[in-house]
Structure formats: structure tokens, C-alpha cells
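Hey L., structure's done. Input below.
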Amino acid sequence: MRIAGVEPESVVDGPGVRFAVFTQGCQLHCPGCQNPETWADDGGCEESVPRLIEQMDDAVLAGGLTLSGGEASRQPSGCAALARHAHRIGWDVWCWSGHTVEFLMRLASVEQAKGDGALAEMLSQIDVLVDGPFLLRRRTLGLAWRGSDNQRLIDMPATLRKGRAVEWRPPERASLAGSSGGDAGRTGEWWV
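Output:
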């Protein structure tokens, strides 16, 4: 895989402590992108999937995998392999894409018809997809895990079952005392 870098203990790329892989290469070039250094296809460095899996296993504080970039969907085979391993070790998988889930599902379908199921496999391994391009004119600091208000948190298992976008919603915290609060999930309590 060509990657821009790894953050083994990220606390900003999804809920809880996460192992974040930043893929290299993005053709979207969103104005205001927080990671423009990931755009060039020949930037970053090559890293093997087995080596990234070793690093995941060594990340003792992490409880989830984040695939970001760049554009992770441009490297679906490697991302799918990392996501499969994350699920094997009990982690959830979040992925950021500048494309909408509708576009990614259509592209996966076209590619599958041509005999390439890598993107479909990657999508099937994602728990939450943060979709849509970053739009500078719609920038917000008020939405968790999104840079602009056009971006959505997509529940990928539900989306794939229903064949349409289903937005993911974190459980609300029931009380400050914690008597019936939160879904502990794989990465700790989630509430926004």
C-alpha cells in the first residue's frame, strides 16, 4: 500500500483511541483539505499490509481502525485486508471518503461486473463511512468527525442490507450518572 502515514493512537479520527492509516493519493483536491500532502499518487511511502497489521497488533491502546487519506477507496484491496484484521481483533472500522456512499456503491457494482470485487469487499468491511467531499464554504466545527455539513456518517452494514444510505447515529447518553448510559461498543462509550 502507498500511505502518507500512520497514527497508532489517534483520538480525533473517530470515537475512542484509534489506529489511523492515511492512504496516499487523492484526485479530488478539495479546497481547504486538511491533508493536501496526501494528494500526490507518488508521495508518501510503500508499506506492506502484513507490516501494517503488525503495527495494529502492537497498538495496545487502540480499539478501532480508521482509514483516511488521501482517498482510501483508491486502494481497496489493502484497506479491505486491514479492515478484516481489525474485525478479527475486535475493532470497529471507520473510513473517510470524499465520494458519497451512493457513488462508491455504483462504482463497486460496475467494478464487480468487470470481475474486480475489491471495492465491494472494502465497503463490506466498513462499519461507519464518513462520506462526501470537504466543502470549504460549508465548513463547520459543530459536527463530530466531519469537516463540512454536507458530510454524513453512514452505517455501512445497514446501508448494504437496504441498498440505500442509512445514516449512523451514536447512542445518546441517558444520564450523567451513567445509570443506563451509552453503548460501550468496541472503542468505549460513544455519545455526542
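The two ends are 33 Å apart (CA to CA). The first helix runs from residue 49 to 58.

-- N.
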